[in-house]
Each structure stands twice: as C-alpha cells, then as structure tokens.
C-alpha cells in the first residue's frame, strides 16, 4: 500500500488502532459468553467493557520484549482493567483473536469493495444507455470487423462486473467465519458456545472445524476473487487505452484544466488513469500466488501465512478499492466521440460488411467456399490498393447480386437490430 | 499433460476426435434451430446429421493451407455432406464453435473432477470416523502443542474439500455458457434463438452478452478455483509427508510388495506419492496467472487466449484429475500407527498440558502473567534438561495446586471431549 | 507441450529414447571412471558400452512393478549386459543420473534456443538497417509523441534480445553441472573423480556441493531467464499487433495466398501470429513460479520438484523454441508500409513538434512554465477543433518566434540526427 | 512494505526526500553537461546547484493540480532557483529523470543487499566450519538416508548464497543504466553527451538505446533474481523449521529470555523467525510476475509499469533486506544439538548403512538385484517390527559377509571422509 494509491476509508480499516479495537471486542464478547456460561464472574466481564483500553505505542513497547503481539496487547489491556483482566483470553489462543479479526477486517473491506462495484456498475449502466444506439466499430484482433454500438461494449463490461459482484459476495462468505476454538482447535479449554456467541456479535459464521487457525483455502479463494476482478478491470482499462490511441480517438479520459500530459511535450493528452489501472491490476493479481502458497500450513498451523497476510490483506484491498473508484471515475467522465466512431467505421469503404455479402452470395446459390473466395479477392484489393469495396463488388462478374440489393447489404442497422435483446438480457426488463 | 500423470477418461475428453465431435454437434444443432426458424431447409439440417463426418488427419491437412482450424473443419465436413453443407455455420463465427466447445469440455472435465472429489471426500470421511477417537499430537509451528485426535485432523481436510466441492460447482456454472452470437456478438446474421437452442441441447446457459468470445473472466475464475483446490491438496499432502518423517512416523503411505524406495538405499520407504502431489499442486496453480492475463483481450477479442487455453485446458484438468485420484488412494490406503502417536505424545513428559496447568493456576488465584511465568520456567527445564514436567511442577513452591489435582490436569480426554460436536458440525447429524 | 506449438528438433531432445540414452551414457562413463580407478574391472566397463541397450516399453513395464524409473532402467540394461551389469550404478543414487541428465537436456535445449535467438537477432538487424532512416511516429501512452525511425524501433528490440542472449548464456552455465555424489551427496561410496570424469565427458562442470540433488536455485534462475525472454518476445509481439491495427496499419504480418483470416468475415487480415506469441509468452512465464517453489526441498531432497520439471522442462523450452522461430519469421516477412507511417505522422498537423516549439520559446526568453502554457493552449485546439497547429501558433501573439523560424521547427530530420549514434551503440562500429 | 518487516537504512533509500534529491542531482548534472557543451550558461548551471532546493509537501501540493510529479518537482525547484530554472530539464523527458532515479535507487538497494548476503555468507561459513565434522542424518523424502555432517548442510546453503551473490551482482549491472535521451529516445533535443556525463557522475552506464524509457526486461531480470534469492532463503528457513520440529530437535532458533512462544501454551518454543521468512520469501517472489508483465509496454512506452514499480521497488528490496538480516541472525545464533543428532542417527538401529551393506554384498558376488532383495527384506523388518538391523543381517543366511566385516560397515566415518574435499570446493583452499 502506498498513499498515492489509497483511499482513507479503506486505509482506516487496516490501522493498528482499528485492529486492536477489533481484538478488544473479540476478547470482551468472549468474556460475556463465558460469564453467561458461569465460567467467569459477570462483574469481570462488565469491568472489561468498562475499563478496557489500549495504546498502540505501549503495545509496541511490550511486544519488543515478549516478541508476541497478542500477549503484548493483553498485557496493555490488563494495565487498564486491573484484576478482572485475568479472565481475559481464557482458553483461547492468539489465532482465535488474529484470525477472527482478519475475518472482520476482510468482510468490512469487502463491503467497501461491493459499494465500489456498485458505483462502477451504475456508471457503466448509465453510459451504456447513453450510447445504446451509437454505432461504432467492433474489432477482432485489432482489425475492423463489423459494426456494434458503444452501448453494447459497455454492456459487456457491465455484465463482467455484475459477475464480479456476485463472485465477491461469494468470497465474502468464504472469509466471514469466526474461530474461537483454543490452542489446536479442540475447544479443550473453551466452550463452543463462546465461538457461536462471538461470531453472532461480529456478523460472522462459526468455523465448523478449525485447527489452530481458520483454514487458509478460504483466504486463497478470497484473494483469487480479487485477482479475477482486477483482471476485468484491466480489460476495461485496456479498452479505454485503445479507444484513446491517437489514430482511433473514439473516447478519451477526462483531461482537467491545469493538467499536464508530459513535461516535455505540451500537446500530450494521455490515458494515464487507465494505464495506471493496468499496472494496479498486476499488483492485485500478485496477491493470488502467495495466498495460495499459504494454504499448506504445517500440521495444525505454522505462522508463514502471517507476514504474507499482513501485506496482502491491506495491499490488495486498498489497491483494488482505489482502482475501482478510479475506474468508476474514468467511466463517469469518459469523453466519447461518436463522430470519430463514424469516421473509423467508414475508413475501409464498407469492408466491414464483407460477411453480409458472403451470406448474400451463398443465399444466391454459391457454395460457401466459392462465395468466400469472391469476397476475399475483392476485399484484398481494398487493403492493398485502397479501392472502394462496394464498387469492386459491383464490377465483379462473379458477384451475382443486383446492384441495388448489394447496396442494401451495406447497412449498419442490420447489425444493431438485437441491441434491445442484449440489453434486456444484461440489465433486465426495464 | 504427460501420460505419467494422466487418467484415460479425462485425457479422452481433450482428444482431437472428441473436440471435433463437439464442434460437429454445435454446428448441427445450430442448423436444426435455423431450420426450425425457416432460415434453412429442414432437409439440409437432417442431411448434416445423416452424412456429417470428419477425419482428424484430413482437417490437419486442410488447415496447413487455410491456417484456420474451423474453416478446415467445415471444409472437411462439407466433403462428406455435399451441397447442404453450404447451410453450415451460417451467420456464425469461429469463436461461437470454439468457445462453446470449450464450455462443453470444461463442464465435462468438471463433472469428472467432482466425482474425484466425491471419492476423496468419502475416503476422508471413512478414515476420519475410523480414527475419530485416536489421540495424537496437535502441533503448531511443528512443535508439540496439545492433544487432538487423528479423526479431527482428517475432518479438517474433509471440510476443506467439501468447500472445494462447492467452489467447483460454482466454477462449473461460471464456464457452462454457450455463445452463438456471430462475428462481434451482435447476432447480426444469426437469431438469438439459435444460441438458446444449442445451449439447451448441450446443457449450457446462453451467454447474456458476448463480444466475439465468451468473456474470459469466467475462465479466470474457473482456473483460479482449480488453483485453490490444488492448494488444499498440497496441504493434505504436506501433512502426510510430515507424519511419515522417520522421527514422527505416525502414518505412512502404503508401500507395495515389490516397490523400491531408492536405487541406492534398500531400507527406504518414502512418501513419494504425496511429494509428487506437492509438485503437481504447483503445476495446477501455474495455470492461474495465464488464465487471469487472458481476460484483458483487445476490443471484441484477440486470439492471445487461445494458445494458453489449448495448454492449460487439458493440462490443469488432467493433472488435477490424476492428482485427486492419487490423493484419494493415499488416504484410502494410508497406514496409521496409533502406537507411535502415543509415543510422540509422551515424548515431552506431559508438556502438552502446560496450558491446562496455566489455567489451573489462574483459577487458583494467580494473575495470568504470574501463572505464565511459573509454567514457562518449569517447561523450559523440560526442553533444556529433559526433566519430567509433572515432577518439576510438584516440586515448585509457587505451584499452588494440590498434587492430586495437578495430576488430574494431565488428561488427554479433557482435550477430546468436543470431538463429537465438531464431527456433527462437519459431517452432519449422523 | 502440444504438437501445434513445437518443433521436431527440440521435441526430440525430450523423447524417452533420448533421455534413456543420456542415462546410459552417464552410467557407462561412470563405469569407465571407476575402472580407471581400479574399482571395477576394465572388462566390465567395456562390456557395458558393448552390450548396453534398453527398450522404452520394457522399462515402462518394469517400472510398473518397482515404481522406480531408474531401477527399472538398470534392470532392463542388465538384461542386455548380463553379469557385468552388477558394476553399474555402484555407489550412485538415482538423482545422480536424473539430475545430470536434466543438465544435459537443458544445456542442449539452451543451445537450440541460442541459435533461435541468433536467427531472430539477425532478422531484427537486417530489418533495422533496411528501415534505419524510415521516419515514423514515436508514441507514448499510445498517443503521438515525436518522430522516430522504424529502424530505431527495431534496434530497441535487437538490443533487448542481445541482452536476452547474454542472459541465456549465463543461464546455461547455471544448469550445466554434473552431480555424481551418491545418496546424500557425501561421495561415501563413490570417488569424486567419477563426477569430474563424467562431467568432462558430458561438457558439464562438477557441482561443487550437492545434497542428493543438484540445488534447485540453479533451475529457478534458468526458468526465470526463459520468463524474461518470453516477456521481451511479448513486447515485440505487442508492437506488431499495434502497428497492424486497422487505423494504424504501419506494418502487417505476412498474409499468405490461401490464408483465411476469419471463417465469417472474408476481409480479415489479422495479426494472429503475434497474438499467438502473446499467449505463448504467458505460458513460458507460467513456469517461473513453480520453478521457484521447487527450491525449498526438504533436507537433502524431496521429490516434489520432479513432477514439475517433467512438465516445465519440455514445455517451457519447446514452447519458447517454437515461439522464437515464429517471431523470427514474423520479423523476416513483416510487411512495412512507410506511406502509412508518413500519413499517421501528418495526422495531427505537426503537433508532434510541440516540444521543439516549447524549447524555441524558452530560448526566446519565456520561462518554461509560460512557454508550456502557450504551446499547450494551442495544442488543445488541435485536439478539440482539428485546427492546424502551425497556423495557430503563427496567429498567437504570445508566440514570439518569427514565422520562418517557426516553420523550421517542424522538421523530422531534427529528430533523426542521432540515429547513426544509436545504431553504432547497438550494432557496433560497422 | 510494512515497518514490522523493514530496516531503516533500506527504507530511507525509498523516502520521497531521497528520491527528490536524486532527481535534483540528475537535473543539475545534466545542466553541468549542457553548460560544458555551451548549450546553457555556466552561471545558470552553477546557480542550480547553489540555490536548488525542494520541499516534499510543496511538490505534493503542486502535483494535485498538474497531475504530473516531475512537473510539480521542477516547478518547486524553480521557486527556489528563480530565473536560471528555465534551463532545467531542457530537452529531457520525465522518464529520463524517473528511470535514471530508479536505477540509482535499485543499485543502492542492491549494494545493501550485497552486504546482507555477505553477512549471511560469513555466518554460514563460520557455523559450517564449527560443525564441519558433526555427524548428523542426511534425509531424503524426510526419511533417514545416510550420515552427513551438519557442516556439509551449511556448506550447501553457503554455496547457494554464493551463487545468489553472483546473480545479484549480475542483476545490479542489469539495472545500472542511465537514460537521458529525451521524449522518445531520439536525443532530438539533448546531446548524447549529457547522458554519458550524468551516467558517469551517478556510477551508471549509458543505456545504449532507449525508447522513452529504459527497457523493462532489465527490471524483470532484476526482480526475478530477487525471487531466486528469496527461494534460497525459503530453502534454508524450511531446513531450520524441520530441524526444530519437536521429534527432531537437532537445532533451534535462539529463544531469548522474556520471549513467549504462545499466549496459551507456556511451554512453546517455536521457529517463528524461519516461518516468518518462509512467508516473506513468498512476498518477494510475488514481485516477479508483475515485473515480467511490465516488459510489454506499448510502443515507445506506456505508464502501466509505474504503479507496479512504485510498489515492488521498495517492497521487494525492503522485505528482502529485512529477511536476509533476520536469516543471518538465525544462523549466527542457531542453537545446535549434536547429542540429538546422534540420537536420531541411532534411532533405526543402523538402517542408514543399508547401502553399504548392499555394496558389500555385491562385492561379495551377489547380483545387484539379489543383494537389494536381501537388504530390503531385512530393512523392512526394522521398520515394521523395530528389530535391530545388524542383528537381523547377522542372522540371515543369505548375507554372505562375515560378522566382523559386517560390523565394520556400520561406520559413520566412512560417510564423512570427503568432507574436506567438499569444503575445499566450496570455500576454497584455506
């Protein structure tokens, strides 16, 4: 995480202050549960809530001696709570606190990411309807193919992010579990009820079976999902970068007054936001492999996952949060140039209708192979000699379609007739 | 994919023969739908089913000229079908065939993988119940922690693979879509009904919106799921490898008569299957990054994903299929040594009960910090001087627990009292 | 590896036949060394060379019982050699054979890859000189920047591949070592001289210290190098794809007579080779992570690396070999369109000279900030209103440069004056 | 980067203050070179050195408007320098500053890492000699194999890190280049002499040919090297973790007074440092994939690499620096238990001599196959019935070696006789 690519709401989630507050709540809720079970005095549980406090700096100081962060935290809290503090953490192990805390942090982070996706989805939908019928080039292999509409392009990305939203909700369930099962997960010194109680208070599910830790396949699945979302983000970013290429210029990132595109070349207007997003996507994805390597912990746990998660937990969520908002902003403010879309569409003199001519010829009785040869032969002349496709076809004796019928084949409306159908599929029946 | 690590059923799925058969069915079903719509003659559609055939070698031969595999295939089929072949593939684009075929292959591959997981789950459950109450060491950081049961260990892995099964079903839905939407996904030359018809025939869902291709975030999510499963597989494999370490030897891979562990050292019995699975897990995971890089195709598509999928499609599914079966076999035949479990449990003279002593002391009125210091001080003597933990405690004047009560704390049953609860959570109410 | 993306010379290297032949030579050379030391009879060593043979199918058959490939091989060889076979493999361990064999395979594969790079370098150099002075657009962020020459573009890629060649030679040294040190690397049962002897015969260096295996950091460094080369390959492939975009069309992959670009759209000429190379680059890179995970073997070795290397050894080298040759072919046959380069250069009416105007204004006394503002203000009008940049500048009262001097700033030759210098740096003083 | 896993010296390298200082020096040196060429006044160049200054907060403030960091920096410097500031950055492009600065940062970071490796190498060498002849188990597959010495184990890791040191020096050369070639690398507005001059002042080499940026294959190779080093680090960390396992306990991380191993179990002494290093290794490796994806920038550059490098530049070097020092500390303070090594060596009653018995039998005339069968048959009884291997052999009629000769085969010294040879190979002739 670096400040340049972070937003305060998400960053705050990962502050030491926030983390220790969650730790405190886990411990205090657990005491309540134990008091309810009659294992510890109700007064003690209440005293913990009343007097419980901590200071980040003091915890750091204690940890330098004990080399154990949870013990340092408990010692600091005990300094405030006094005698009843001895009931804290009874029968629990550090991982009960750490893993449940991570679950809380990741679910909260996910809630922010879900809101980010909602903002992005709304922007995509709005712009998709805005350009629902704006004809532009469809390209495959970077080569002009056939007409589509700009709204369709955006609908595609909308659908991808709608899928990503569903995946992220799934991923949220993956990591929203609470484990308070003691040293090696046997509940030897703690009643399973405590786990259920704390889980409920924190909006989590009890982990059905834990070792010393919550199993890391959950986290691997979570970070893999972030990697998939990042990849969709890259896909949309690359689309914008392509559309903004000087020769294409069908769309452009908003360029604010006062902005400078280059220190050397004052004429520059660069798609720097989407290029940046392309890089950020690589970074979010880079969390996937370590998260997967974290799964194979030794026996009931080793702590190799911990340093990884201290990094990728904040890094991947903060970066993705920043990036999704940047991307939403790009979509919301995207400058779209329908005139240029039309200019590009016309660039090759109707070559984009080659398939329709091909089909016309087969319907007129030619074999597919022969029709293909006729159309390709004429098309190649357009590429090589900048000739007009329609004129070439008219002049070709093997083209057995009447001129008027031929001209009718060069019609963009033919290609956009199912836009409504697709929009209904994507956005529902509105 | 290499034969050494593959099973015939899965490999067959990816044969050229199987692939072209799926292509044929897609094309023929599409013709049926078009005939139903009155776009092509019913006779033609029937003729395609009746006379349609292909030869892999002939397709390869034609492709060498056309440099386009779908065209080569269609040409070869036309050689068999004759005149009605001109109705084949009308309004479709190659990707309609290729992507829908990949969806069929991946869903079939997934069905095999689901069956593999079922075999593994059954084996884990059976062995978990077999050793439900077999006490053994729980270890954290590779260091003796507290008693668990071997059944609990297996229940943990069962739960992980049950989650993996659910993830894989989810992943199956991700990739079970059919796109027959023409050149750039506009249905310009093909009615959306054809897509719906073919989808239904092949057990797929119509892709709500496609470009020229089915969006690759679906495949990224799919291969990421395989990567998570592979990681859980590594986790179990590493557990077996640890248990088989000579000094531990609590369990061992089955060693068949005639097997040789080493060309040089005849005494060797090595956990080669689980070591192999550890490596195979790395390979399955290696498909995740390229699958994610595949998402950001240019505009309506480029073909960079194709070579990747030609490799990771078969490689990841074949390898995982082989590996899951190997793993199931390891679990089914695992040699388990309860006597060694007990020996290891006793190795440190009761040190594994240190927490219970700690809690006993706090219940007897010591502060948590003081109690910790007392227990730790005695425990360190066990590590450093191989002394007996219980005797040391009895001799320590700060240990304010009666001898008899102290002895009672050294009881494995205390640690296993919630095994039933956990089993109910994992396996349900049986 | 799949046949579609492989060349016979490289594939042959990885055949079982070739592998067993190397195994045989290692064993036979080792016997020679032992005979020289008087440890085994010279007759025996000679008999092994004379009668030694093997059959792949028979080895497979034996392995099914022993589950150990080296033992199966030795047993099969013994069937041919008879009594003297008992001197084979004395004091050696399987890994001595396997790891030394892998070293031979990887060095041979590297020699092919080095030749591939030479072909590519030659093609790049030839085309670089061909277009040394062909002016074209330099672009940053996909936006027109300033003029370069097409030869300079190619010189950049030449330099990258020259670096890659040097890296690959370094990587070859990394893996060109021989270990014949016995069970756990102690030479307990084999004299270090045998290792030195065999190493020399096979063109390898003795491994200074091995465990049971050659240390895998060597292989990690090797595959990482292939990953870097693949990334440079992707870089050049992406350049070609961009240049071939319809709106750009400054260069194009060779399109052979009879080739079909699309089954649906006969007009298509797609950069399918470089798109394919983009995908293959992802695959070569996918070997890096597993190769790095292979380094941390347990104690003196575990066999988790083996399955990984059985796959990535052939896959990464075969794929890279195929890809480098495909890339060389693309460069050799690349269609280059200088007219289109000029057309694109002119597209923005001289905007690409904005920096020179900026510098002209600062030399004429404006502060950099003021000059920037003046130039940017005019440039934005070109973007937004398609005005002519030079005319705008002439009309701007704040532009304090005489018209004639202003016109002189719009000169491509100014930008290409150091092409000779750069070529000398890259290609040397020829 | 997180403070927990960072050291101040390395972190300081990446401070904004340090970065802008390098920017300033690049600009000021460039002015000196231009003054020398007579392009700008010598007074101006001197004034820049004399009055040049910047404030991080002010730069941030300006950047919020310009959205361009180099322009913001130059504006801030101009506020201090006054009029002569207009000569700053003439003919240069932002990347000239950014990329050259990154080269300086990475080379300085590398110098720290080289010193880290030296500390680690020294520790490994010292401890290797300390335990040069301390016999311990060699293990393959986690199973007892044959005796080695603990010094040999350490010598292996020494050799790996010596290779890593050489690789890192190579990697340093990869990234130690300076590009001051202007907008798209043509030197249109800047003389190549400036590049040469600045390069020399900063201890870099001029980049032979750059686009707008230094080619990213250099950085990919650099980060790949860090990934290889991290993998070797993981290898040594995993070795320590294995040796510290309770059942093995041949070595142990230093456990300081006051340290607490577990909040719940006071008896714990866990290998937390090496587990932590295992996780950190995963993080350093995670930089490799994005660094490789950074290579394929579009045309003369896009800025997608920038966000990646802002993160992995500091993260990977800071983490590796921290980790190498932690690892050196682990080695320096490692507690080694030769008595436990001997105990483990004796655990299987001499089974580790099985190969020597095998060879003894073949020398006594048995075929290798028959000898193997005899030894294996007896060895299996040791595993299964805990019998004594030597006694079993003595009692076996097929063992045709005299008892006394048999006993002589059970000799650890036989296995350590080449330790001196290996040490000479690894550490040289001292």
UniProtKB/TrEMBL annotation, chains A, B, C, D:
It catalyses: (2S)-2-[5-amino-1-(5-phospho-beta-D-ribosyl)imidazole-4-carboxamido]succinate = 5-amino-1-(5-phospho-beta-D-ribosyl)imidazole-4-carboxamide + fumarate; N(6)-(1,2-dicarboxyethyl)-AMP = fumarate + AMP. Keywords: Lyase, Purine biosynthesis. It is an enzyme of class 4 (lyase). Its EC number is 4.3.2.2. One of its GO terms (molecular function) is lyase activity. Gene3D superfamilies: Fumarase/aspartase (C-terminal domain) (1.10.40.30), Fumarase/aspartase (Central domain) (1.20.200.10), Fumarase/aspartase (N-terminal domain) (1.10.275.10). This is Adenylosuccinate lyase. It comes from Fodinicurvata halophila.
């Amino acid at each position: 995480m670096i400040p340049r690519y972070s937003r305060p709401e998400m960053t705050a989630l990962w502050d030491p202050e926030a983390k220790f507050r969650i730790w405190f709540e886990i411990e205090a809720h657990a005491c309540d549960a134990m008091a309810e079970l009659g294992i510890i005095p109700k007064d003690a549980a209440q005293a913990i809530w009343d007097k419980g406090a901590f200071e980040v700096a003091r915890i750091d100081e204690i940890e330098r001696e004990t080399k154990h962060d949870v013990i340092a935290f408990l010692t600091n809290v005990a300094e405030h709570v006094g005698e009843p503090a001895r009931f804290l953490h009874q029968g629990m192990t550090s991982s009960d606190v750490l893993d449940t805390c991570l679950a809380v942090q990741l679910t909260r982070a996910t809630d922010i990411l879900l809101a980010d996706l909602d903002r992005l989805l709304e922007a995509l939908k709005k712009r998709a309807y805005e350009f629902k019928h704006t004809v532009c080039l469809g390209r495959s292999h970077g080569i002009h193919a056939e007409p589509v509409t700009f709204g369709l392009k955006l609908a595609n990305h909308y659908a991808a992010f709608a899928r990503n939203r569903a995946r992220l909700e799934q991923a949220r369930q993956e990591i929203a579990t609470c484990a308070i099962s003691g040293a090696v997960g046997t509940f030897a010194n703690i009643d399973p009820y405590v786990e259920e109680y704390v889980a409920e208070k924190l909006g989590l599910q009890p982990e059905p079976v834990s070792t010393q830790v919550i199993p890391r396949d959950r986290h691997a699945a979570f970070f893999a999902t972030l990697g998939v979302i990042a990849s969709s983000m890259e896909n949309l970013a690359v689309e914008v970068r392509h559309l903004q290429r000087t020769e294409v210029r069908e769309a452009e990132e908003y360029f604010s007054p006062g902005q400078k595109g280059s220190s050397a070349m004052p004429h520059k207007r660069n798609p720097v936001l989407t290029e940046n997003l392309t890089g950020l996507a690589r970074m979010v994805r880079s969390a996937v492999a370590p998260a997967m390597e974290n799964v194979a912990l030794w026996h009931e746990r080793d702590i190799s996952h911990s340093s990884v998660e201290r990094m990728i937990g904040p890094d991947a969520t903060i970066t993705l949060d920043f990036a999704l908002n940047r991307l939403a902003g790009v979509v919301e403010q995207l400058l779209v140039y329908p005139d240029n879309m039309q200019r590009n569409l016309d660039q090759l003199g109707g070559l984009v209708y080659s398939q329709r001519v091909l089909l016309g010829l087969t319907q007129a009785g030619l074999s597919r192979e022969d029709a293909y040869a006729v159309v390709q032969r004429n098309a190649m002349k357009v590429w090589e000699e900048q000739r007009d496709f329609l004129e070439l076809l008219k002049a070709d004796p093997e083209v057995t379609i009447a001129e008027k019928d031929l001209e009718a084949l060069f019609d963009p409306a033919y290609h956009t007739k199912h836009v409504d159908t697709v929009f209904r599929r994507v956005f529902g029946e509105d």
